[in-house]
Amino acid sequence: MEPMEPEGIMLSKASQTEEDNYHMISPTRRRRRRRRRRRRRRRRRRKRRRRRRRRRRRRRRRRRKKEKKKKEEGEEGGEEGEEGEGGGGGGGREEEEEEEEEEEEEEEEEEEEERRRKKKKEEEEEEEEEEEEEEEEERRRRKKKEEKEEKEEKKKKEEEEEEEEEERRRRRRRRRRRRRRRRKKKKKKEKKDKKKKKKKKKKKKKKKEGRRRRRRRRRRRRRRRTRTRTRTRRRRRRRRRMLLTRQWTGNKSRRAFLGQCEETFRCPE
What we know:
By secondary structure, this protein is mainly α. Among the domains are: 26-61 and 107-163, no CATH class; 233-269, no CATH class. The chain is built from 6 helices and no strands. It has helices at 13-20, 27-78, 85-199, 211-249, 252-258, 261-264. It is rod-shaped and about 200 Å long. Residues 5-11, 83-89 and 261-265 have low confidence and may be disordered.
């Protein structure tokens, strides 16, 4: 049975979580992450380039050596008849080769030293950049905090001003109401006083009267009294009837409180 191939690219659990939580990371941290990745890529590229250069140099050196060797061998073949020079020439060649190797080693050491210096410099620059970023982040945080505090203070101030304004409005309303009441009261009193004044009549001077006049006056008074009483009673009855009717027709809660119409009052309807 063949193993099943996963559909699409399968991410590792860590990378999946990273992808999910990417939107939750702060922008500064994202920037830092991007910069680190860029630096890593640059380093890798540089390393690759260095390796390639070294390989090329080594190949060149080997090629040169081989070419030199071939040349020397050819020269040796051409100068077979000459004596005494062969031994001395061999020793000279060995010395030259040793010198070349030493030079190459020195060059490699210098290159290595140069690389180390560059690396150190890059690391220092990276550290400085990171420090600058952290300082920038700190400044931004502080600024944000200050802005927030200013905003809150402003809001608080505005709320206090609004409350004060509301209080002033309330006081004005109260004053107006008081003035209105006072004016109303005053008007009412003035009206009452006017009415009273109107009612008051000038007393007539009493005449000396006899028995007949006195009787007549008494009779009149009695009649008037009776008439007034009757009128008052009628008025009261009418008013009571009207109130009961209103209670029966309009005010249901009052009707419920008083009880049923037939039991308590005579229903006007």
